């Protein structure tokens, strides 16, 4: 049976409120804490193609890591809502000079221009090395909750039967204050490889 829709929605609302209440000073410290933790992880060090996001709605901000990745010559990608209403995400390269336009949720994303020139070509989800995805909530066993759109769940549903070589390392990012004792789970939830907060690594 699906996890009660209302209990998940209520918890999401509470946790979104919590992260939106952080001050800009707390947000800044959290972003630096996150950078310190992630940049020491083997999964970061060995990854060349890394998907991130632009922080929105109080999400923990991966920007310090993005700048570090650019300096280290890694290629960074942003999620773009697939236009054909598949409910999936495409991953487009994000460089310091990439033009961004707000999507329907008000989140900046690169624009899709067909035919794709090499510099603007989406990278298939299976060919990413590391995916840093935003969480609204998590628990210490590594269960996650997102914004409720199911975008990451649909995009990475292939992970359930893919070979090891076609599996990116999926890491959820959140503020430590978004941890709860137990996240309700549903059959479609994609398991994460790890969760990184400003203070810890889970599970
Ligand atoms: N920074 C960031 N980028 C992202 C995501 C994200 O969660 N964070 N996404 C992750 O999927 C995708 C966009 N999906 C989103 C889905 C819903 C809402 C949202 O704000 N929805 C409603 C609330 C819905 C509800 O409570 O059920 C809203 O407008 O308030 C935002 C983004 C791709 N890019
Ligand atoms: N593989 C899938 N195929 C079709 N629908 C899916 C799939 N995965 C999830 N969904 C749908 O998307 C919605 C996702 O709800 P859920 O509350 O689990 O989102 P979430 O995990 O918070 O979102 P996100 O994955 O964007 O972070 C559900 O209504 C579910 O039916």
UniProtKB/TrEMBL annotation:
Residues 1-26 are annotated as: Disordered. Its cofactor is Mg(2+). GO terms for biological process: folic acid-containing compound biosynthetic process; tetrahydrofolate interconversion. Pfam families: 5-FTHF_cyc-lig. GO terms for molecular function: 5-formyltetrahydrofolate cyclo-ligase activity; ATP binding; metal ion binding. The keyword Membrane does not apply. The keyword Kinase does not apply. It catalyses: (6S)-5-formyl-5,6,7,8-tetrahydrofolate + ATP = (6R)-5,10-methenyltetrahydrofolate + ADP + phosphate. SUPFAM superfamilies: NagB/RpiA/CoA transferase-like. Substrate binds at residues 54, 59. It comes from the Bacteria. Its EC number is 6.3.3.2. Keywords: ATP-binding, Ligase, Magnesium, Metal-binding, Nucleotide-binding. InterPro entries: FTHF_cligase, FTHF_cligase-like_sf, NagB/RpiA_transferase-like. ATP binds at residues 8-12, 144-152. Residues 10-20 have a biased composition (Basic residues). Belongs to the 5-formyltetrahydrofolate cyclo-ligase family. This is 5-formyltetrahydrofolate cyclo-ligase. It comes from Parendozoicomonas haliclonae.
